[in-house]
TrEMBL record:
The lineage of its organism: Bacteria, Pseudomonadati, Bacteroidota, Cytophagia, Cytophagales. Residues 3-83, 127-221 form the Cysteine-rich domain. This is L-lactate dehydrogenase complex protein LldE. GO terms for molecular function: oxidoreductase activity. Pfam families: CCG (PF02754). InterPro entries: Cys_rich_dom. GO terms for cellular component: cytosol. It comes from Spirosoma fluviale.
Length: 245
């Protein structure tokens, strides 16, 4: 299989180490990976702000960059969900539909396509998982706690393969962090309070690191952590799964 590595713009600019970890991890697992260098924003910020009608050039460029691959994989649940639900073409709707069906979030790809059962990874720390809303409720990466249904979690499934890692239990395992894209700008006070609550839940339960499938959530939490001079750190799940500490 040939995978196109989709790296969202904010990951490229602020967390390139997560992009590198994603690339290295996929190659370790025997996947042929290509990073299209001309890729840019998928258009999610504009669409979230009510300007989806201005995203067609983003859609066209995404199709140019990624339509040739067997799969498209990204370390960002929110951007993957946006592409899955909103990528369209005024010239070739069938092409856009086909590409939407090939886009996967990294954890989803590892569990559902590669069926990974073993990882040569080590991360000897106590880790709390932040279930991002887009990953949890949009992509179905884990079971929502309010449902009376069998529990599952694809991130937990993979993290349980990491030597030395201890997962901590949270009081509210799938609470929103308050980021919400443009919500954190429009409703700053509410957003920050929600972020503080998520950090407190992790720290009171002993987490040394907070991980997630969404770096946008981690970016929001990291900003609050730095302002409060909290000792807990954030790390994208790809960095843990690729770690050999």
């Amino acid at each position: 299989m040939h995978v196109g590595l989709f790296i969202p713009c904010y990951v490229n600019q602020f967390y390139p180490q997560a992009a590198i970890a994603s690339l290295q991890l996929l190659r370790k697992l025997g996947v042929k990976v290509t990073f299209p260098p001309k890729q840019t924003c998928c258009g999610q910020p504009m669409a979230n702000s009510g300007f989806e009608h201005l995203t067609q050039e983003c859609n066209d460029l995404f199709l140019q960059n990624f339509s040739r691959f067997d799969y498209i994989v990204a370390p960002s649940a929110s951007c993957v969900l946006h592409v899955k639900q909103h990528l369209h073409s005024t010239v070739d709707p069938a092409l856009a539909e086909g590409v939407r069906s090939k886009v996967y979030e990294l954890v989803e790809f590892l569990t559902d396509v590669l069926n990974v059962e073993n990882l040569n990874a080590r991360f000897p720390y106590k880790v709390g998982i932040h279930q991002s809303c887009h990953g949890l409720r949009g992509l179905g990466l884990a079971q929502m706690s309010e449902l009376n249904a069998p529990s599952f979690s694809k991130p937990v499934q993979l993290l349980n393969m990491v030597e030395g890692l201890e997962l901590v239990s949270l009081d509210r395992p799938d609470e929103c962090c308050g980021f919400g894209g443009t919500f954190c700008v429009a409703e700053e006070a509410v957003s920050v309070k929600m972020g503080k609550d998520r950090i407190t839940d992790h720290t009171k339960n002993g987490a040394e690191y907070i991980t997630s499938v969404d770096l946008s959530c981690l970016m929001h939490l990291e900003g609050i952590i730095q302002r409060k001079k909290n000792a807990v750190k954030v790390v994208h799940i790809a960095e843990i799964l690729n770690s050999t500490w």
